[in-house]
Design brief:
Elements lengths: L1 H31 L42 H5 L47 H4 L22 H5 L21 E4 L8 E4 L48 H11 L2 H5 L1
The structure holds heme C (4 copies).
One heme C binds next to helix 2.
C-alpha cells in the first residue's frame, strides 16, 4: 500500500524539481535582459510626438501622491504614464499603486533616510532615485544597486537606510563599498560606480524644451499610429496651447496694417 502511495508522491517530487529548475533558470535568463528592452527606446522616447522632458512619450499627472495630496510630477510622472492603471492615467503596464508604495516624490526626513544627494532631484526622491530604467542596466528590477538577482535586497536598501542594514552580512565594510549603476554618462558607458566617484552622473539637466500642444492617450503603440489622427496636431484648440506659442500664433494672424495704427 505504501509503495502505491509513494509512487505518485515520487512523481510529484520530480515535478517539483523540474518546476524548481525552471523557476531557477528563468531569473538567470532575465539577468541578461529585462522587459524594457522590448520597448526598443521608442515606447519611452518619441523623437517627434513627445509629451515631456527628454522627449518622453508618456506622462501621467492624474493620480495624486497619497503622501502630499498633489499630483505626481517630475520623472516619476513619466514612469507612471505606463506603470499605473488606465483609469488612473497610466497604460495598464505592471501597475504600481502609490497608496501601497514606498514613499516617493517627497522631501526626505534625514532621520528616516540618508539619501545620497546625487540621487535626489531638487531635493525630492523620485522613481529614478531607486531605478535606472535603461535597458543597459543589468540589475534585478532595474535597481540602482546589484542585489544578486534579488537575493540580497538589503544591499540596495542600505544605500539610504544604512543604519538598519547589517552591512557585514553583505560583505560591506561601509556604505561607501556600495556601487551605484548609471547609464547617464556616455563618456564612460553603462557602469556601477562608488557614490564618491566624480564620473557618477545620474542626471544631465537640459532645458525643458518639449511642450506638448495637447494631450493624447498613453500607449505602447508607435505614436504615428494615433497621433496624426488627433485634430490638435493640425488645428489645435488654442486653449490647450502653451501661452508662449498661443501669443506667437495670434501675433502671426494679426494683419500687419493693424500694428502700424
Ligand atoms: C522605460 C523607459 C525608457 C526606455 C525604454 C529608454 N529610456 Fe531613455 N530615458 C528614460 C528616462 C526616464 C530618462 C530621463 C532620465 C533622467 O533624467 O533621470 C531617459 C533619458 C534618456 C536620454 C537623456 C540622457 C541624459 O543624459 O539626459 C537619452 C539620450 C536616452 N534616454 C536614450 C535612450 C535610448 C537610446 C534608449 C533605447 C536604447 C532609451 N533611452 C530607452 C527612460 C527610458
Ligand atoms: C512605455 C512604457 C513604460 C515606461 C514609460 C516605463 N516602463 Fe517599466 N516596464 C514596462 C514594461 C512593458 C514592463 C514589463 C511588464 C511586464 O512584464 O508585465 C516594465 C517593467 C518594469 C520593471 C520590472 C522589471 C522586471 O525585471 O521585472 C521595473 C522595475 C520598471 N518597469 C520600472 C520602471 C521605471 C522606474 C520607469 C520610469 C523611469 C519605467 N519603468 C517606465 C514599460 C514601461
Ligand atoms: C525606495 C526605492 C524605490 C522607489 C522610490 C521606487 N521603487 Fe520601484 N521597486 C523598488 C524595489 C526594491 C523593487 C523590487 C521589489 C518589488 O518588486 O517590490 C521595485 C519594483 C518595481 C517594479 C516591478 C514590480 C513587479 O511587479 O515586479 C515596478 C514596475 C516599479 N518598481 C516601478 C516604480 C515606479 C514607477 C516608481 C516611481 C513612482 C518606483 N518604482 C519607485 C524600489 C523602489
Ligand atoms: C534612494 C533612497 C532610498 C532607498 C534605496 C530606500 N529607501 Fe526607504 N525611504 C527613503 C526615503 C526618502 C523615505 C521617506 C523619508 C520620509 O518620510 O521623509 C523612506 C522611507 C522608508 C520607510 C518608512 C515608510 C513610512 O511610511 O514611514 C521604510 C519602512 C523604508 N523606507 C524601507 C525601505 C526598504 C525596505 C528599502 C529597500 C527595499 C528602502 N526603504 C530603500 C529612501 C530610500
Amino acid at each position: 500500500m505504501d509503495g502505491v502511495k509513494q509512487s505518485p508522491k515520487g512523481g510529484e517530487d520530480m515535478m517539483r524539481k523540474t518546476l524548481g529548475l525552471l523557476i531557477l533558470a528563468f531569473p538567470l535568463v532575465s539577468y541578461a535582459y529585462g522587459p524594457h528592452e522590448a520597448l526598443d527606446c521608442l515606447a519611452c522616447h518619441d523623437p517627434h510626438y513627445a509629451k515631456a522632458y527628454k522627449i518622453f512619450k508618456v506622462k501621467n499627472e492624474v493620480y495624486p501622491n497619497p503622501r502630499t495630496g498633489k499630483p505626481i510630477d517630475g520623472i516619476s510622472a513619466l514612469c507612471l504614464g505606463c506603470h499605473n492603471l488606465e483609469k488612473f492615467g497610466g497604460a495598464n503596464v505592471r501597475p504600481i499603486f502609490l497608496h501601497m508604495t514606498h514613499p516617493v516624490n517627497i522631501k526626505p526626513n534625514p532621520k528616516i533616510a540618508q539619501v545620497p544627494k546625487k540621487l535626489l532631484r531638487d531635493g525630492i526622491l523620485q522613481c529614478v532615485s531607486c531605478h535606472d530604467p535603461h535597458p543597459s542596466n543589468p540589475n534585478w528590477k532595474y535597481l540602482r544597486v546589484d542585489t544578486k538577482g534579488g537575493s540580497q535586497v538589503g544591499r540596495f536598501c542600505a544605500l539610504c537606510h544604512p543604519a538598519k542594514a547589517d552591512l557585514k552580512f553583505y560583505g560591506l565594510r561601509s556604505k561607501k563599498d556600495l556601487k551605484v549603476f548609471t547609464s547617464m554618462n556616455e563618456a564612460i558607458g553603462p557602469v556601477s560606480l562608488s557614490l564618491n566617484d566624480p564620473n557618477l552622473t545620474i542626471q544631465n539637466p537640459t532645458p525643458n524644451y518639449v511642450r506638448a500642444f495637447g494631450d493624447f492617450k498613453n500607449s505602447l503603440a508607435p505614436a504615428y499610429t494615433y497621433v496624426p489622427l488627433e485634430p490638435w496636431i493640425y488645428n489645435p484648440d488654442p486653449k490647450r496651447l502653451p501661452p508662449e506659442l498661443r501669443k506667437l500664433i495670434e501675433a502671426s494672424k494679426k494683419p500687419k496694417t493693424k500694428k502700424k495704427k
